[in-house]
Amino acid sequence: MRRHGSPVRALMATFVAAIFFLPLYVALANVFKRGDLITKEPAAFPWPPTLHNIIAVLTRPDRLYWVSLTNSVVVTGLSIVVLTVLSAMLGHYLARSHGRWVQIVTLLLLCGLMIPAQAILMPVVRVLQATGLMTTLQGLILFNVGYYIPFGVFVFTGFIRSVPVELEESAAMDGANRFQIFWRIVFPLLRPATASVLIFLGVWIWNDFLDPLVILGPGQGTTVTTGIYRSIGQYQADFGSVFALMFLATLPVLIFFLLLQKQFVKGLTGGASKG
Amino acid sequence: MGEGLIGTAVATGRARSSSRRRRPAWPRIRHFLGFGGPGLAVYTCFVLAPILISFGYSLTNYNPFNPPTKYVGLHNYRMLLTDPTFLTSLKVTTILTVIVVVTPNVLGLAIAVLLDRRGWLYNALRSVFFLPMVLSSVVVSVIWTRLLDNDGPINQALRALGVAHPPGWLSDPDYALYSLGAILSWQMLGFCVVVWLAGLQGVPTEQLEAAEMDGAGPARRFWHVSWPLLAPALTINTVVLMISAFKIFDHVQVITRGGPGEGTTATIAFVVLRTAFEENRGGIASAQAVIMLTIIATASAVALRLLRRREVEL
Hints:
- The complex is a heterodimer.
- Chain A is mostly helical.
- Chain A has helices spanning 7-31, 35-40, 52-58, 64-96, 100-114, 117-130, 137-160, 166-173, 178-189, 191-207, 210-215, 224-235, 239-268.
- Chain A contains 13 helices and no strands.
- The longest helix of chain A is centred in the first third of the chain and has 33 residues, at 64-96.
- Chain A starts with 6 loop residues before the first helix and ends in a 7-residue tail after the last helix.
- Chain B has one domain (74-313): MetI-like (MetI-like fold, Orthogonal Bundle).
- Chain B has helices at residues 2-19, 25-35, 37-57, 75-81, 84-115, 120-130, 137-147, 153-160, 176-201, 205-213, 218-229, 231-246, 250-256, 268-278, 282-313.
- The interface between A and B is large, with 106 and 104 residues.
């Protein structure tokens, strides 16, 4: 059991955290501040607070926020669902089969964990152009699936190894086929792994900037991140709107994070302690 | 993690195949195609094939708007070895990587030691440090661009404190790269805090109490009891930070666009994308990408090996 901290430690910790939080405080304060005050007194507390910036973003005539939000929800949602299904099945195959073939596939997937998207984007664009998927949401979703599948597979493979194989063997004896066994018996047992995959990939894909920027292309479609990027150029002086847009774009992830914080941390710290 | 996985795959593969009768070919293939097929097909189209295409393009003068594409051998690589833009990007990326590997690691450990106590206050403070990890790099970049603006809050505060000419954090070529490093460190700090804290929680209280009874002060307790047990946390932090630092693109694109001046903050990832999509020099961009991949693979393999050896020795 760890000890409770002394008052001095509590004070010091709070002080350090407050300094660390300052940038976010300034950003948050500016969401609720009048435009002219943002440049004049950026760090002042927003009093009286105004909802003007938020309303301005929500009611923009070109509906930038709503379009971006819809695109981000569609891309993130479909990507993580397809990723979970495909990587759980591939992970199951790799965990339960043996031989040279399995080693080769594992090794190939391992390479993918390290490859930065920047290094392969140009050929990816060629592939998408050849299949007519360039500048489409489907194209972006397919790329996300291919790019993040190694992560999903390794989370699932590791987890499936800890599930006793006898369960599957007895179900096979009762005459169930492989798909039935997997979806009815194995998959429901993988809940913690599924949660990890959904949470991490959800946040990564929601926050992804480079891939939508290149694949959706200029002007065509925006996700929340590319929407923010484009609006910095447009507004120039109107930082109130930019901060409001960022706030609204981050809100879904923020809520997600606050609800699932424990699982998030658990997933991150898998191998961080010895023994 | 990776090496362990291969290790187990190899070990179990050998143990089982000798004792078990092999299933007939067709059900095996059907099983593979049914479970592995869809995932591997997408992975092949969007990752494996592009890697091979990159290798291929790197040996040509490929330019989508200037056909025909011809084989030029190693010409692109030879050219890059003396190309000032590319060499600068290697230097910039190296400096950034050193900053990003060292700063969040060191500060993160200090903060983790400070926060390693029970109670709601410490839980809440932990979330504060973790928050930037779930923010998009675009959001973080825009926030810091405002903060570090020549007339932004930070310089306003410095002026109020009597600094007549505070530096142009992002507009001065001498400062911009280090400002970028500071921003990245701020965003990555939370990750390190979480990993260090998990490591600290794995240190058995009995050992710490035993050391205390033997008269060891806090510093010696940390150094002799906790620190050796934190080796895996150091490995994770270092490798993850290194890989993330090597591919920094978003912050550069949003905050500095490679400037101010001649490529003072242009990282390899930024240069690869600019060469590919703005200059349309596909062959050169592919050669840059291949070099980038080689560096990342080598550096993380070496780091992993060194740190793992240290883990065993401790």
